[in-house]
Design goal:
Helix content is about 40%, strand content about 15%. The protein has helices spanning about 20-30, 50-65, 120-130, 145, 150-160, 175-185, 205-215, 220-230; strands at about 1-5, 35-40, 45, 75-80, 80-85, 105-110, 135, 160-165, 190. Helix 7 crosses helix 8. The longest helix is centred in the N-terminal third of the chain and has 17 residues, at about 50-65. It is globular and about 50 Å long.
Length: about 230
């Protein structure tokens, strides 16, 4: 089963799909490539909006999409891309941020803070406070993580999982080589398109899944698929 674990497809909710027509076309693009499940992860910024208001906006966008299209709702999983800030700890209940009915949260790390061993203490607090499992979104964007074995291992030891954007396999020879190595070592657990539109950040899945299979092997890609399937079935 092919699962896109990171998308910005819901219409008019963040910097992703700007309208219903674009949302439908993005979903059709993914399904035509064999993607069976799509995790809907609009941006959530805990320093800008309450979880309750975010959940209401997401529900409105989701209902609008379902009511005005032939999209099969069982193939869509409501979630979030939660930008990690200290404001998150002001909330008693963060279940609306979960991936479906699981206790996993796609978590975007801050870009204005160095991701060090000391920073991982905050992630530890996040896990302990809410009894959740963070999935670090587009881990390849954080040099202090993928190039620092101690930080990477610490996050793994805490139970974090790592998601890679498929489009990053186009980011140059050395970046691609690094990512293939992480995939082969099973240090990349999940993949997603992180699609925002139909052009510059399009829902391109099969091109890159085929590339992973070609360069690393079918077993490595199947492991990623099985990880995704296990999570959404929990």
């Amino acid at each position: 089963m092919l699962i896109d674990f990171h998308t910005h497809i819901l219409p008019s909710i963040d910097d992703g799909a700007k309208n219903l027509e674009t949302s439908i076309k993005m979903i059709n693009e993914l399904t035509s490539q064999g993607v069976e499940k799509i995790v809907l992860t609009p941006h959530f910024y805990s320093n800008k909006i309450s979880i309750n208001d975010f959940a209401k906006k997401r529900e409105q966008a989701y209902n609008y999409l379902i009511s005005n299209s032939n999209v099969i709702k069982e193939n869509l999983i409501l979630a979030s891309e939660t930008y990690f800030t200290d404001y998150i700890f002001n909330n008693k209940d963060i279940s609306d941020l979960y991936i479906g009915k699981t206790k996993y949260i796609l978590t975007e790390l801050p870009y204005n803070e160095s991701i060090t061993l000391r920073f991982t203490e905050k992630i530890d607090k996040f896990i302990y406070t809410y009894n959740i499992t963070p999935i670090i979104a587009h881990v390849e964007r954080y040099p202090n993580v993928i190039n620092n074995a101690k930080v990477y291992q610490k996050l793994l030891d805490l139970g974090c999982l790592f998601q890679m954007n498929l489009l990053s396999l186009d980011k140059g020879f050395f970046k691609r080589k690094k990512l293939f190595k992480l995939i082969k070592s099973e240090f990349i657990h999940l993949v997603g398109t992180d699609c925002h539109n139909l052009t510059s950040r399009a829902p391109v899945y099969k091109k890159y899944s085929d590339l992973i299979i070609q360069k690393v092997g079918i077993d490595s890609f199947n492991t990623i698929c099985n990880n995704a399937k296990k999570i959404i079935n929990e």
